[in-house]
Amino acid sequence: MEVITEGVNNLNITDSSYNNKNRIQVSNTKKPLFFYVNLAKRFMQQNNEVELSALGMAIATVVTIAEILKNNGLAIEKKIMTSTVDMREESGMRPIHKAKIEILLGKSEKFDELMAAATEEVIDYEEQS
Fold this sequence. Notes:
Elements: H1 2-9, E1 23-25, H2 33-47, E2 49-55, H3 59-71, E3 75-87, E4 96-107, H4 111-128
Parallel strand pairs: 1-2
Antiparallel strand pairs: 2-4, 3-4
């Protein structure tokens, strides 16, 4: 878990070639759930909000991430958008309709306070080890 958090903390989120710098596209298979939770926290620290996006089976993962952040008092829900997109698995095949969700979360009023407290807990734990 510490490796995931460290990796997220060392990410540089200033890629200007990406037009929506506060969007996280979530996949079921690529990263563990708490990688996305920690990444979303980092995005909210830098941009005050984060947009979680997913297709198909990854929708449940996005909803879980949003609920973890909301239930821990870190985020407030600003907007939820759903749609379907047409995708082709191979050229020449009929398009497949996939469900899509986008959830926009903003910092809660207590976000900075809660993040500071969590950081202090980590420092205290490391000093005890």
